[in-house]
Amino acid sequence: MNGGSPARYALLWSLFALLAVVLIYPIWLTVQGGFTSVQPGGGFTLWHVLEVFRDPDLRAGILNALLIATCTTFLATVVSMPLAIIAARHDFPGKGVFAALVLIPLILPPFVGAIGVKHILGRYGSLNTFMVDWGILDAPIDFLGDGGFLGVIIVEALHLYPIIYLNLVAALANIDPALDEAARNMGASPWKRFKSITLPLVRPGLFAGATITFIWSFTELGTPLMFEFRRVAPVQIFDGLKQMATSPEPYALTVVMLGTASLFYLLGRVL
Questions:
Q1: Which residues face 44 on adjacent strands?
Q2: E strands, the chain, in order
Q3: What is the Cα–Cα distance from 269 to 239, expressed in whole angstroms?
């Protein structure tokens, strides 16, 4: 054992202790609240968690969160894939600026994009105003969907696509260009080369980025709040904070969200 080992072990255990205090212990308290009976004496119970699936509003909130996460991940993949291919395989003037601009959405808070989308696509946004003034429409159209559902997906996808983009760029950089050149020499079309060579080889990076994006959008609170879309699980938990002292429902819903997010993370790792 060298002389620096005790100090390193002390630092390591100090970090573990800090992690336990600020992360693991609060999670344990939340999980415990979801499985503790409200009857005198407390005790373990599955009743509260099962009630989440029996309540139609909470069940709809979880399904909406899953739908938002699925649509957001798909749209973010569609946006990030061509950008990653351009960044990894082509050289052009201003490529450094391009790489920096692509990552800006990840730096900006989501509510900035939400405000912009509402001003453009909202019922009284600039697009509706323009089309009504020019006689294209007789009345404004709600482009954002019922309760802003579509707006939530658009903003979250534009905010989170850099996560998939970074993973795809790293995966594309590890592909041997000779594979694509050989396929081109054999007469394979660009789509055939992408489907048969590029996509299978970048799949690990794509799954890694998509898993993070899915979980992030599944648990996102700020964007649905900005669009006043309240029938989604994170907002329902937020609205239930005032009842935490008297009701186990927010704890139980948090347990279900935590379990679902963990399950999808493990599934992504396996795939």
A1: 36
A2: none
A3: 32
The answer to whether the CB of 232 falls within 8 A of the CB of 153 is: no
Taking the CB of residue 125, how many other CB atoms lie within 10 A of it? 17
Q: How many other CB atoms are found less than 10 A from the CB of residue 103?
A: 13
Low-confidence ranges of the chain (pLDDT < 50): 1
Please tell me the distance from the alpha carbon of residue 160 to that of residue 263, in angstroms, as a whole number.
Answer: 20
Q: How many CA atoms lie within 13 A of 83 on its CB side?
A: 19
Q: Looking at residue 123, what DSSP letter applies?
A: T
Q: What is the pTM of this model?
A: 0.83
234/31 Cα distance (integer angstroms): 16
What pLDDT does 218 receive? 92
- The per-residue pLDDT for 1 is 44
The alpha carbon of residue 87 and the mean position of all alpha carbons in its chain are separated, in whole angstroms, by 23
**pLDDT tens string 1-50:** 455 578 888 888 999 888 888 888 888 888 888 888 766 666 778 888 88
